[in-house]
Structures are given as C-alpha cells and as structure tokens.
Amino acid sequence: MKAVLKFISLMFVVTVLAGLLVACNSDEGASGDGGLSVGIVLPTRDEPRWVQDEQRFKDALEDSEYTTEILFSQGSSANEKENVDTLISKGIDVLIIAPHDGAAAGSAVEAAKSEGITVISYDRLITETDAVDYYVTFDSIAVGAAQGQYLIDNSEGSNVPLYLYAGASSDNNAFLFFEGAWSVLQPKIADGTFVIANSSEAEALQDKGDLSRDEMSRILSQVTTNWDPNEAINKAQTHLTAVGGDMKGDVAVLAPNDGTARAIADVFASDNEVSSYVVTGQDAEMASIQYIIDGKQSMTVFKDVRTLVEDAMGMAITILDGGTPETTGTYDNGSVEVKAKQTDVIVVEQSNVKSELIDSGYYDADEFSGLE
Ligand code: BGC
C-alpha cells in the first residue's frame, strides 16, 4: 500500500513537472530567441554534494526539451563570473546559482540583473547586493541545531571534550549552521556538560547565547575547514596534538558536513587516546551513509536535493510564464530582504538509513554494504 502511494505521488510530481516543462517550451525555446532559458551555476564538482545536485537537475529535466545548461565554477569566483557571462551571452532569462563565495558573486549576478535576467540564489545566499530576486534553500539553522542536539543526546556525563569545526567563512551557510549548533550547544557548555577543546575564541564567548556575525567570524577563523577535507584533517591533527589526555577519552565533534566529517572522523579514529567519538555531518553523501552503516560517522543531516531542484525549477518556470513564484519567508542578505522558499531537513543515523534513504527511493540498497 505504502509503495503504491509512493508510486502515485512520484508519478504526480513527474507529471506536474513534465507539464510545467512542456508549458514553457515554445518552438523557439522559452527564451523566445532560440537560446537558453535557464542557466544553472554550481560551485564545484570536487564535492559529491554538488555532483548530486547536477544529477538531480538532470533527472528532473530528462525527457523535456527545456533548454538549460549547468556549469561548475570549480571553487573560483573568477570562473563563476565567466560562467555567468557565458550564460548571459546565450540568452538566459533565469539564472539559478549556488555561489562559491556569497559576497564575491555579487558582481556576476549584477551583470545578469542588468540584462533583465531573474536571479535565484540556490542553497547558498548571495550577499551584499540587491541583484538577487529569490532564494531556494534548506533550513540551515535547523541543520546546525540538529547537529548540536545530536551531540547533546549522544554524549554521556559531564566535561565531555567538544571539538568544533565549521564551513568556509565565504559561505553564508557556514554562519547559519554554526548559529544553529551554538544555540543548543552553548547552554550545555555553560552548564559543564561539554568543555570546548579546540577554540580559545569560542571559550571566550562560551557564556553568550546569541553571537554576532563578527563573534562567529572570530570562532570560524580558528575552526574553519573551508569545506576542504584536507584542511579538516590538518586542523584535527593539530588540535589532537595540542591537547592533553583530559581532552581525549569519549569526545564530541561538531563537523559541518559529510566531506569534512569523514576526514575528521578518520583522524579521531586513529588516535589511541580517543576511546570514542560522536561526530556530526550533513548532505547524506553516499560515502557517509556507508560510514554511518559501518559506525564510523554518527549522523548526517539529509537535505533532499530533489525538493530543492523541484523548487528552483518550479520557480524558474513560473517566472518564464510571467507569474510570481510562491515564497515562504525572507532572508536578509545584508542589502535587501530576499524572498525565499525553505525546505525542512531530516536527521539520519544508523537506525533510519533504510527508511529515510532507501525506502524513499533516494538511493538504491545495492550501493551499500552491510545494510540491515
Ligand atoms: C551546503 C552544504 C555543503 C557545503 C560545502 C554548503 O553551502 O549547504 O550542503 O556541504 O556548502 O559545499
């Protein structure tokens, strides 16, 4: 029965999307000049997260003559600007963009805007410019809060050493994730459940519940991974070398995403004085799902990219049809309040890998070994 319902709802989504796609496919292409209708720019192919987004866009657009092109910026704002210029020259009407660096992307989207293109910020907010029309995103504060809460729920006793790691300061999400995590962890640091092991800046602020952007920046400057697993390894090694035995034993580790979580987990696993570690993640990357099944990573926050893609494309199509997309709130990007559509997230650990990721059709069971 459940399977039938799932099938019916899947068919419904497919039909609606196909209908929308067909609706905007004039013979000339939706841009009316035979050019591209929607340009999509993603930050890097080097992280499975964004390759996943590319695949989900392709899946959603399969079988349609809808004209889109996806370009990757490979962690460079200069490449990103070139990508946007290329898409502008191909005549796009809508730009969907996840920026490499949220502030640096301003000039790229301003160029698009001045050509009358509608700009949708995708997953990461473009900051300090009024050239962003819409934002489709997951609830990033909830991601961080779920990570922090997981550490609280899965640590025992008091004075548990807490290692903090964060994403890149050039990514607005890194602040939102940290803000969410800090909102639940800070009271537990203040009451002695956790002891911060690796950030003097966080220690100095440990009695403060609400941190300003500047205060968070100070902490991030010590514990950023820059979203780079190698940087995460180096930082984790340096931190474990610097601390005494009292900061080892059973520890808790706030890792911002799956790529850095696996890197950090490997370092903690290889330290003889660390008897156990609880480590967070996000993105439900396949490699991390295997780590979770194997007991090497504790949790991940599942952000269903299918929904984000559907929201972004749905918005693009509404715009191409001359309508106004539905939004659920706004995000202050430092310049304007950007109208946003936000999606919820789901915590995944060993016990619900199967129900959340396999039964939902997100991944195939045979991608993993040892799955119950
Ligand atoms: C995204 C995460 C991703 C991280 C690193 C963030 O902006 O929301 O899903 O893991 O960037 O690419």
Give an overview in words:
With 372 residues, the chain is an alpha/beta fold. It folds into 2 domains: 30-132 and 305-343, Rossmann fold, CATH 3.40.50; 140-303 and 348-367, Response regulator (Rossmann fold), CATH 3.40.50.2300. Helices cover 44% and strands 17% of the residues. It contains 13 helices and 13 strands. A 7-stranded mixed beta sheet has the order 2-1-3-4-5-12-11, with helices on both faces. Strands 7-6-8-9 form a 4-stranded parallel beta sheet, sandwiched between helices. The radius of gyration is 21 Å and the shape is globular. 47% of the residues are buried. The model is unreliable at 1-32 (pLDDT under 50). The structure holds beta-D-glucopyranose (BGC). Beta-D-glucopyranose binds next to loops. Keywords: Signal. This is Putative sugar uptake ABC transporter periplasmic solute-binding protein. One of its GO terms (molecular function) is carbohydrate binding. It comes from Evansella cellulosilytica (strain ATCC 21833 / DSM 2522 / FERM P-1141 / JCM 9156 / N-4) (Bacillus cellulosilyticus).
Number of strands: 13
What is the name of the CATH topology of the largest domain?
Rossmann fold
pLDDT < 50 stretches: 1-32
**Integer tally of domains:** 2
